[in-house]
Amino acid sequence: MKLERIAVATLFALTLTAQTQPQLPFPDLVGPLKATPGCLGVETARSASGKMVIFAWFEDKKAVMRWYNSELHQQLVKMAAPPDPNHVPLAGIADDSGPILAIASLTLSNQPPKGSPLPVSQIAIELYQPLPGGVFVGSRFAPNSVKVPGMRDFSPQPSK
Asked: Which domain holds residue 108?
């Protein structure tokens, strides 16, 4: 299975945020990811099934490419697998695509699968974009800077 390399490094950041899982020997990536120009926000979580998950919102394709081409990300891509000279990151995404949510998930295992240095049983990187609509009360999961057409705010208004 060929993974989109755009956010491979973000998966490794998950291991640094889970308190109950062993940590892999990778640097902090959440901080540098947040510092990438055009990164609108980052959240990490652990699912009920044990997946470690990172949600990273980007302003647009250019912002994702800033992270993809960063020195730290490129170092980690090289550690994860030999570079594919034919791979064009985000080739199917229009330059004017708008906000992009990268969701990276990883499940640790007791030992690495054959041929892999990473002790994982599952790893995935998925890309999404907001659809019009939705509601919230108080605050949203996505950063407020992620504009969603038709999003309705049912938060109580403060009394005057």
From this structure: 5-129
